[in-house]
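Before relying on records like the one below, remember that each one covers exactly one chain. Contacts with other chains, cofactors or solvent are not represented anywhere in the record.
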Amino acid sequence: MSKKTNLSKKTIALALTLLLSFTFLTPAYTEEVAEKTYIGINTVNTILNNVDYRDVKGSKVWSKEAICDVSALEIMKGYGNRTFGRTNSVTKEQALAMVYNAVGREVEAQMAAEVLDAARTAANKKTYAPAMWSDGYLQLAATDGLISAQDLTDALASDRSAFTAASFYRESAAKRQDVAFWIAKALSLPPVYGQQKIFNSYSDWSEADPLKIPYIEAVLQNNIMSGLGNGKFKPQGNVTREQVAQIIKNALPVILPLRGYEKELGTIESIEPAKDFVDGQNITKNTYSVRNSNGKLHQIVTRILNKQSEDYRNEQNGSLKPIENIDLIVYKDGWLGKSSALVTGDRVEYTTTIDGRVVYVKVISNTANTKYLVARVNTIDTAKQTLNISKVFDLKYPEVNIEDNNFSYDSNGKNVDVTYIYSANSEVIVDNIKSTIDAIEPGMDVILAIKDNMISGIKSVTLRLREQGVANGIVEDINPQLGYITLYNEDSPGDGTTPDIKTYNYSNPKNISVLKNYKPANIEDVEGGDSVYIKFDDKGNIEVISAVDNYIEKQGKVMSKNPASLAVQYDDGTQQILTTDEKIPVMLDKKLVGYDTLKEGDRVKLLINITDAFTRLKQITIEGDEHFVTNIYKGVVVKLDDISNSLILQNMEILKNGSWERADQKGFSTISLADDNDIFYNSENIGADAINSNLRSTEAYIAVENDYGGDEKAVLVSFKNKSDTELAAFDDSIVSNTLGIEGEISLEKETSNISYDKGTIVVKDKRLVTGSSISPEDMAYVIANREYSDGKYYASVVDISPRSDPNFISIYRGRIASINENKDFTVSSFSQLNGVNWDFYNTPKTFRITYATSIIDDSGIVGQRNFTDYGDSSYEDRTVYILANGTDAVMVNTVPYGTVSAKGDIYEITGDSEPTGFTMFSAKIYDPTTNMWKDSKDMSLNILDNSIILKDNRIAEPSDLEKGDKVRVIKKDDSETGDAYIIFVE
C-alpha cells in the first residue's frame, strides 16, 4: 500500500471526526419531513380490560387473531366477565347487531331504538339497555331489507301465542345463510346471479334459500365466508361467536372504509422518546418513525404519563382515578398489548382514522428475522416437511400487487428452484381462510414467510401476468416433430364454460431453452397436463419453455376397487372412476405398500393429472386409521345439545361381536357430532336441525370414530322407526347382494332377504362404506328391523370384519437342541397345537430366525444376539413355544407349558395402566377324554409378562383385550384361578 493511500485514509478519518464532533452545532437541513403524523388513542386501558378474555387468552384456538382484531376495533365485545364465549351460537338479533356494528351504524341503531321506545306506554318501556338497543338494530334491518316487515312485527311482539314455526323468533339461532345474506346487504355487495363457487364447491347448495343464494355467492367470491372443509357450506347450520369474528375479519377490507378507517403497511425505523412537562405533568412522548410501503415517512406519537396525577379522584371513595394515556393497541406474539411491545424493525399494519388517530397496530414480523417471497409450488414432501418452490420475486410485506411487478424468468440467473423445510406449526392461509399444509397443492402460487431459512407462513395468491412477452397455461397438446405447443388457460376470460386455447408454433426446438421442473430438459420431456410458462423474444419467437408437473391432490373415500379401476367419492360429494394398475404407487404411513393394501372405505389422497383430454392417476396415499369406525352404539336420543353439538342419549348400548351390551356409563350419555356427519330417518338425510323438532325420545343407531384428541364423534346416525321391531342379530355369511347404494342382501341361514339403503350403517374392515361394498361370502353381523306395515326386513347395521382364524399361525411346543446364532434353531421333538389338542411328533424340526423374530422370556424381550446355546444364559434344553409362518419363527416364548383348555366371555379386566388379569363368565373346561366342553364357575386368570395373546389374526398386547371378548385360554390346570399362558380371542 502506498503512503499516498494511507495519507488519504487518515485525512478522511480526521474529517469525519471533526464532522461528528460539531454535528450538534449544525442544523439538520436534510432531516426528512413526515408525509403524515398520527397520534394514538386515549381508551387503550379500557379496551384491553374488556378484551382480557379467559377463554381466549393463553389458548391456541384458531380464532384468536380474529377475536383480537374485532375486539381491538370495538366491533365485537365479550360478555363483560372476561368471557368472549367463542363457541356459543349467535342468535338472529345478536347477528344483526354485530353486522351493523361492523359497518359503524350502532349510533343509528340506538337512535332508532329510542324512537321505538318513546312510542311505548310507561308500563311497556324497556329498562334493560341491551334489549332496547336490540330493537333498534331490528328496525334498521327491516328498513334496509335484511328482514321483512312481518319479521320485525314478530320480533317486537309481546304476545307470541299465535306464533307458528315460520314466525321470526329474534332469540333463535342465526343460520349461516342468514348471516351471509345480512352481511352482503349491509356491505352493499351486489348479488351474484351467475353462481360459480357455491355450485362448484359445495354439495349441499340446494339446501339454501334460493333468494339468498346470490348473496351467499357474493360473500364466497369476496372470501368473507367459506365452507366447512368437507365440501359442504351448511346453509342451515348455526354460527358461533368465533365464526362471526372470523367472518368480520375477512370482511375488513370492505368494512374499514365504511367506518372511516384506512389500513397502512410500514416498517418501524426508529423510536424516539422525549420528555414533556407541559401543564406540570411528567409525560414521555414517544415518536415512532414508520417507513410506509409507499416509501414515505409516517410518524405515530404516543404520550405516556410517568406519574399519576392527584387532580382526579373517585367521587365515591376518594381513590385516585387512573388517567388514560395516549397510547396504541398492539397485536404481537399472539395477544394484545400496548406500544411498549414495538421495537425497531417491526413490520406493522396500522389502522388509521380520517382525524389522524391510530386505532390498531398489528405486528406482522421483524425485518431482522423474516423475509417474504412470491413462489410457485413445485412439490410437497410431507414426510420430510419440505416444500420445493420456484421463486418469482421478493416482497417487503406479505401482500402483493402483481400489477406493480414484472414477471421474469432467468434460467441462468440466481437460484430459482429452492427447497425449504416448513415448520410444523406454519400458518397456512388459502383463499384468505386459515387452513393446513394439506391444502397447499403443486402448481399453486403462494407468498412464503421465511424465518431462519425455514418457512413459517404460507399464503395462496393469484398471479395475473400482464402481456409482457409471457404466456402461461396447461399443455393441451405438444408435437416436437410438427413444431407446435397448445395451451389452455382456465382463468382466461371467455364464455365461462370452456377454457381459452391457443397454439404457439416454433421452427427449431434447439433454439429454445427448455426446463422441466426447473431443471434443463428436452422439448420431448414436456407432456400433456404440464403447467408451463412460455417466454418470447422481441420478434415473437419462443425463447424459453418452463414446464412443471401439474398434478393436483384430491381427498375422498374409496367406494369400490378392482385391479383396473378405482371408484372414489370426493369430499365435495362428487364421484369419479379412475383407471388404475399395480404400477401406481400406494403409500401408507409414509411407506410404499401394495395396491392390495387399499380397502373399500379407506380415506385417500390422490395425486391426479387432469386435462380436457385425460385424467391420469399418479399416486395413492392411504390416510391410515384416523377415520376407522371405533364403535357402533344404539340408544334413545333425548335431544341434540345445540351449544356442544352433542347427542344426549339414554339406555346406550354398544355392539360387541353381534350382541348389544350395556355401556359402562349409567344415566345419560353424550356423543358429539363429527363435523362431517350424516343423519338419516326413513332413508332420508334429514340434518341435525330436525332432531329436536321431530325425533326426540327416538332410538337411533350411531357409528363413531375417534378424533385427533381420542374423543368419539358420531359420523353416521340412523334413527329407527318407532313402529318397527328390531330382530335378534344375525351372525351369518352373505350369499348375494344386488349392489348399489340401495339394495338387498340374502344370508346363508336366513330365508328372508334384507334390504339396505343410505341410512344403513355398513362397516367393513372398520371402515364406513356403502352397501355396494358388501360382497358374497362376507361374514357379517346384521342388525335388522321388521317393518310394521308390511313385515319386510331392513338392515340398520351391517358389520363386516374378518373372523378369527385359529390357523393363521402355527403353534409348536418343543425342547431346544441347538442354536445356529442369528440363523436358525432346532428342537429335538415337538408338539403342534391342533384345535384344543397337541399332536406329538418324535422328530427334530428346524426354524429359521429372521429379522422379525421376537424372543421373549420371563423378563421380557431378549435380543437375538443373546439367544445362544452356550454360557450362563444358554437356551439349550429349554422348552419353548414357537409361533411360526411355515418354518420362519415369528415368536419364541418361554411361557410355562399348559395342557388344559378353557373358554368364556371376558366381563372384567383388572390392572391400572396395563391389564394384568381378567375374569370370564360362562366358563367351560375342555375334557379330552370325552372331547366335550364342561361347564365351570367363573374364572379369574392372570396375564403374565410373556403370555401369548392372539387376536384379529395377529399377535396382540394385553391392552387389546376388551370386555365382551370371547376367549379360549391354555392354562396349567382346571382350577378357577391361575395363569393364562396362551389367550385366543375368538
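Confidence is low (pLDDT under 50) at residues 1-30, 402-415, 490-499.
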